[in-house]
Amino acid sequence: MRNYLFGTGIIGAITSGLTLLRGLREGAFTWRTALAWASWGITLALAIGAMVDVRRASHGEPIPLDTTLSEKEQRKLAKQAAARTQR
Fold first, then answer.
1. Which terminus of the chain is more exposed, N or C, with fewer CB under 10 A?
2. Is the pTM of this model over 0.85?
3. Percentage of residues in the chain with pLDDT exceeding 90?
């Protein structure tokens, strides 16, 4: 569980979200602020999606072809899943 919560994508999304919250206190809500929040939402969604893909791959479940995992990482995770099923 901690591998997912302390991933760099999630930590980056949290810190940028905190920065955006601080910016709301100091300034007015403009179209640039709305774009920044939309960008933050997309970043958070991508980080969560990457965590889900890593979890699925590590448990031997099929992952989509458009995943961010490299082919080398996919092969390594497939070997680990195969070793688990042989036990």
1. C
2. no
3. 21
Spatial distance between the Cα atoms of 48 and 81, rounded to a whole number of angstroms: 22
CA dihedral 59, 75, 67, 64 (to 10 degrees): -60
Judged against a pLDDT cut of 90, whether residue 42 lies above it is answered with yes
* Of 80, 69, 58, nearest in space to 9 by CA: 69
d(CA 1, CA 15): 20
Closest CA to 77 of 8, 86, 62: 62
- Across residues 30-48, what is the average pLDDT? 92
Q: Where are the domains of the chain?
A: 2-86
Burial of 57 (0-12, 13-18, 19+ CB in 10 A): buried
